[in-house]
Amino acid sequence: MKRIGSILLCLIPLIASIGLQNLAAVPLFGISAIFILLRYGPGISFTQLFDMCGNLWVASGFTAWISLVYAAASIVIFLFWYRKKMADNLEQVTIPHVFHRQIVIGLLLLAVGLQYVTTYLMNFVGALRPDWMQSYQNLMRQAGITSPSMLMILYACILGPISEELIFRGVTYGYAKKAVCTAAAICIQAVLFGIFHMNIIQGIYATFIGLFLGYVCEAGGGVAHSALLHILFNLCGLFVTPYLYYQNGHPFFFLLFLTLGVLTTYTGLFLFQRGVTERDLKLFSSTL
């Protein structure tokens, strides 16, 4: 029963983050409605106010502001939660050791390789279920990801990854490790990370990426390295992926670039693990 209770605790960060997303939207809804009333005066009808608010609330810029408010609030809340309940049981890693040269190179290669692999994964799933892919593409356009503003870039590449790492590789993974073995805990947080995205296509590749983020968090000794990988992965997704994926239907090129993606991913993991080992040896020798 105690183990079951610990596993159920893993759901609390997911539920809390979804609730926080909705709460973050409420003040912005109110502020925007007040702004419209002040701009157009008391003569505006309820129907006009409702239509204007509705058009504003579905705009990508408004979505970006909601995302930023949510991410900032979740960073504060889950950082406190993580440090209060989880960080004492994890290895404390200083910033210089996070940015160990070989670790950073490994994470960069891992981010690029995972972009290759997830692109193929998404295309494969999309070929099986075009309706899922269409829904995903519509969601990305509505969120402003296809033509991102500076606000969306700030969220997608900095605040969003940090908040999600604290939620899933920090608090969720911390609870999971208390209930099950490390491998099972990594799988649990990855699945919950996929569910968090509320979209089948995103859920599939988020679960896949979550496995690597969980491994990096465990191997690195905390959320610092997984947050860096998450940031690099999202940056590659926005700015590098269009130049990585070779759009050619020939089977040779399909297999060639898939192989390159897998090899890059493996090389990144190898360099990261080697960098962590060297870092740990230096830390050990400095304590002698």
List the main descriptive attributes of the protein structure presented here.
mainly alpha; 85% helix; single chain; 288 residues
Overview of the structural elements:
This protein is mainly α and about 290 residues long. Helix content is about 85%, strand content about 0%. It contains 13 helices and no strands. Helix 6 (about 100-130) packs antiparallel against helix 10 (about 200-220) and helix 6 crosses helix 11.
The number of helices is 13
Envelope shape: globular
Provide the succession of SSEs: HHHHHHHHHHHHH
Low-confidence stretches: none
Helix content: over 70%
Structure classification: mainly alpha
CA-based gyration radius: 21 Å
Major sheet description: none
Strand-helix topology:
Elements: H1 2-9, H2 11-40, H3 46-57, H4 60-85, H5 95-98, H6 101-128, H7 130-143, H8 150-179, H9 182-196, H10 200-220, H11 223-239, H12 241-244, H13 251-287
Short description:
This protein has 288 residues and is mainly α.
